[in-house]
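User: Please fill in residues for this 682-position structure.
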């Protein structure tokens, strides 16, 4: 069998310098190399006649030079090479920039193949910077050519050559990873053929067969891992059976507002979980403003009235404080003791909280990552709620659950995921969805405008602020670089402070600030001491400010739709009509389509579907959000049919062989262990 762990540096054609470039692409060994799949393909297999060429297309022609290569120096560091070539239908001019070595390359009277971008002006046909082969060669033409994600210092030609060398080194000796019965039953290609054909397909039919095989394996291993994770959580575990007499209705009936049908349905699901022997492990999805927090509060009430403690973990201190205020207000007559644990509280106060917590004198502890600290000891933890669950890793959730004896777990997110995908992706969790907003929530009027509308937007902001309202202005994250981001926010803030809104109270907020500083600014904004808050996406998960009714997003084209929707949800929480203004640059079809989606609907689930379609799963989910590795080839939007069928296959396999111990599943167990071994025991 081939040694797939071989360091990439020692693959033919790599060496130390190129290894560093490949490392940037996530390629460290031979296995990474052969599973570094193309992002697209160019069909360079069928030549066209010159008279058939279309302006702007990339095409292949087979022609004979009729002039030698001539070189013209435009300026000191720029030369243009030109050569005319012909077939029996016309003449095409080839042009190259700064490639002097081509001058003696082409001989009149011999045929060559050229592939490049076509430009047509009247009767003149030109091909810019074409790649080429002799008529009988297929190095760069005459076949389907893969195109890979790459860096500017690693050309496609070089990357293709390295991958070819890697495949030659393996030479069909990759160990088969799927059981023979699955390969036969579902008419799948063997792994060696699939790997070769995904990189250098003989035809597009062969490419489809290769992709089918690799997608099948990737999704099957994920589904088996999720099922194993779910079984692992519930096996040999007896959860807490909460008291049936601790009725959720006792607190529901005392609420100063009515719950939606969706909230009541979800509470029934949670109630059933809490009264069963099986530990609850449930994901609660709900759009921004759908009322997830009150659901968590009611679940915590049942927990406490059954004689246990609840932990509520929020991603930010300001959100934790907000939860404490909500819980304290609603539960003030219920005799339930709530407390807050966040970084920044005094040592004396913290020691007092920890003492009372361990003694059982605190019923509900609300906090941030501070809840994860080793010295946080509960008397009898019964329920763990994590808010905005994608902000916490799987390990963080397990740390806090280990502070109790199989407590119930409720994880919440306001990032809507299409229902079908959620049911499959979060296979280790039961799923509840609040798909209804409270009736008093007004639709947020959303407008997409270009930069030329700045003055009108600014005048609108002034008009609203003069009426007593407040506004957010959000700057985009620039390549995850907080320093660049912070600078851009401060520059914009200074511009608005000193020029555009000099008569208004303007502040800024960014990720480089200390937590205390951020919390103080948000508190000032909440109290109405700031008119305009200029911020990065740190306000995406933040405090409710009912008086803020305008959200302006700068460079909206840089955000995903789901994130834009999350940001938009920061307004529209009070009695006033709210507005979201998306300022964008560019005029591509994708940008226009994305802006159209945002202005046409306030439904987070509709938006998430479109976001998934437009951006693909890698960007949509991100490893931090769902805790799974990025898919190398599967696309959850395009491959939803395969995903559904594979889920059924996985259930059948696990029911027949829960630990994959049978000889026929040996190879499958190895794949699952390699990909998910750090998360599951199978």
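Assistant: Residues filled in for all 682 positions:
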């Amino acid at each position: 069998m081939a040694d797939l762990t071989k360091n990439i540096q020692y693959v033919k054609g790599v060496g130390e310098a190129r290894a560093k470039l490949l490392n940037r692409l996530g390629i460290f060994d031979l296995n990474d190399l052969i599973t570094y799949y193309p992002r697209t393909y160019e069909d360079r297999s069928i030549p066209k006649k010159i008279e058939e060429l279309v302006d702007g297309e990339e095409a292949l022609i087979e022609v004979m030079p009729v002039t030698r290569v001539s070189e013209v120096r435009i300026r000191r560091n720029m030369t243009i090479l030109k050569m005319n070539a012909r077939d029996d239908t016309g003449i095409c001019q080839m042009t190259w920039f700064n490639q002097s070595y081509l001058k003696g390359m082409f001989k009149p009277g011999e045929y060559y193949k050229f592939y490049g971008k076509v430009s047509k002006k009247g009767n003149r046909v030109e091909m810019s910077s074409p790649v080429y082969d002799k008529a009988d060669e297929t190095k760069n033409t005459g076949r389907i050519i893969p195109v890979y994600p790459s860096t500017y210092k690693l050309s496609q030609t070089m990357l293709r050559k390295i991958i070819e060398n890697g495949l030659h080194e393996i030479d069909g000796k990759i160990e088969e990873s799927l059981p023979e019965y699955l390969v036969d039953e579902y008419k799948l290609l063997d792994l060696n053929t699939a790997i070769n054909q995904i990189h250098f397909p003989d035809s597009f039919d062969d490419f489809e067969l290769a992709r089918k095989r690799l997608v099948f394996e990737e999704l099957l291993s994920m589904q088996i891992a999720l099922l194993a994770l779910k079984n692992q959580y519930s096996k040999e575990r007896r959860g807490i059976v909460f008291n049936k007499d601790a009725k959720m209705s006792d607190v529901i009936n005392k609420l100063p507002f009515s719950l939606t049908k969706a909230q009541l349905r979800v509470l029934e699901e949670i109630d059933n979980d809490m009264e069963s022997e099986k530990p609850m492990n449930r994901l609660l999805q709900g759009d921004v403003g759908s009322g997830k927090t009150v659901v968590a509060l009611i679940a915590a009430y049942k927990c406490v009235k059954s004689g246990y403690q609840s932990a509520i973990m929020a991603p930010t201190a300001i959100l934790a404080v907000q939860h404490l205020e909500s819980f304290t207000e609603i539960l003030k007559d219920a005799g339930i003791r709530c407390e807050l644990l966040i970084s920044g509280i005094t040592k004396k106060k913290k020691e007092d909280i920890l003492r009372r917590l361990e003694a059982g004198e605190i019923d509900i502890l609300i906090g941030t990552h501070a809840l994860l600290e080793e010295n946080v000891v509960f008397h009898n933890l019964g329920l763990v709620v994590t808010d905005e669950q994608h902000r916490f890793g799987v390990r963080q959730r397990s740390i806090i659950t280990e502070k109790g004896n199989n407590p119930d777990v409720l994880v919440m997110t306001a990032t809507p995921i299409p229902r079908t995908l959620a049911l499959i992706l979060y296979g280790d969790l039961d799923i509840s969805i609040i798909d209804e907003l409270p009736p008093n929530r007004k639709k947020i009027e959303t407008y997409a405008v270009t930069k030329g509308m700045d003055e009108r937007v600014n005048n609108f902001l002034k008009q609203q602020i003069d009426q007593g309202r407040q506004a957010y202005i959000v700057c985009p994250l620039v390549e995850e670089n907080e320093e660049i981001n912070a600078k851009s926010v401060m520059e914009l803030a200074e511009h608005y402070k000193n020029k555009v809104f000099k008569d208004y109270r303007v502040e800024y907020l960014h990720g480089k600030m200390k937590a205390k500083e951020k919390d103080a600014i948000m508190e000032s904004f909440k109290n109405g001491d700031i008119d305009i808050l200029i911020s990065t996406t740190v306000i995406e998960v933040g405090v409710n400010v009912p008086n803020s009714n305008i959200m302006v997003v700068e460079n909206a084209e840089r955000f995903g739709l789901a994130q834009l929707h999350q940001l938009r949800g920061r307004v529209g929480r009070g009695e006033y009509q709210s507005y979201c203004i998306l300022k964008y640059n560019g005029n591509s079809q994708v940008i226009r389509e994305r802006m159209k989606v945002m202005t046409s609907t306030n439904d987070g689930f509709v938006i998430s579907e479109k976001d998934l379609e437009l951006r693909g799963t890698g960007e949509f989910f991100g490893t931090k959000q769902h805790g799974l590795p990025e898919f190398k080839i599967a696309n959850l939007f395009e491959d939803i049919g395969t995903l559904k069928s594979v889920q059924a296959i996985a259930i059948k396999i696990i029911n027949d062989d829960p630990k994959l111990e049978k000889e026929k599943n040996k190879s499958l167990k190895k794949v699952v262990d390699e990909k998910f071994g750090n998360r599951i025991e199978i």
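For context: The two ends are 25 Å apart (CA to CA).
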